[in-house]
């Protein structure tokens, strides 16, 4: 039976299609090799262009005079997928900061009756602690104190190597964690709020009146335990009577001293 796919073609064309023609096969192979060479050349050109661009960016980062300029150049080196995720996370951080700042400034005006939107201080504090546990704290205070850290290779590597919230903020200027200074301010605010709302301490001490046993001065209120101690060991004296008794004891002591004695050691009357 005649093969219809080749029966209507010239013999040399059918042979070439089957790969039986050595010249045609060599020609195709040469074309493929040439295409691969061109593709490789294009890849290398793109790599050189990319390397050159990165070198220019790093050079610009190194020469940046301000932190904002450094961030602008550094963002050019960020992975697009990670950058998108960081920026999405930053929106959440900014929402948290808005809540914290309004409470710190006393401008939070959402009514407690608005069950859908209202967030109490305690609820906000709990949410903040969960956020810190998951994403950490961004040490913006440290970043601000380091000066032009991007011009110090060792310091830059040490600061940006961990890949945490502080590293991302230092390298790209993106907040993926709540700043440390705001966390400290919030903790102080919550502590003050809780102490102000704590119930006042009321001592459970009972008092009873005691009247001076000598002069009968008006009663003085003293704790029950103190009154019981007086009743068990001694009589209660007012302050005035205690002072009089102290003066009498002092006079008696002075009277018994040698310089106030009338007779000497031999029983003779001392010269006055």
Q: Assign an overall shape.
A: elongated
Main sheet properties:
2 strands, parallel
Helix content: 55-70%
Q: Mean of residue pLDDT? A: 80
Widest sheet: strand ordering? 1-2
Number of helices: 12
Q: How large, in whole angstroms, is the Cα Rg?
A: 47 Å
The assigned structural class equals mainly alpha
How many β-strand runs? Answer: 4
| Low-pLDDT residue spans | 1-6
SSE string: HHHHHHEHHHEHEEHH
Q: What's the end-to-end separation, in Å?
A: 170 Å
Assess the beta-strand content as a share of residues. Answer: under 5%
Structure in words:
With 272 residues, this protein is mainly alpha-helical. Among the domains are: 78-197, no CATH class; 207-258, no CATH class. It is built from twelve helices and four strands, in the order H-H-H-H-H-H-E-H-H-H-E-H-E-E-H-H. Strands 1-2 form a two-stranded parallel sheet. A two-stranded antiparallel ribbon has the order 3-4. Helix 3 runs antiparallel to helix 4 (67-74) and helix 5 (80-105) runs parallel beside helix 10. The chain starts with a helix and ends in a 17-residue tail after the last helix. Mean pLDDT is 80; it is low at 1-6.
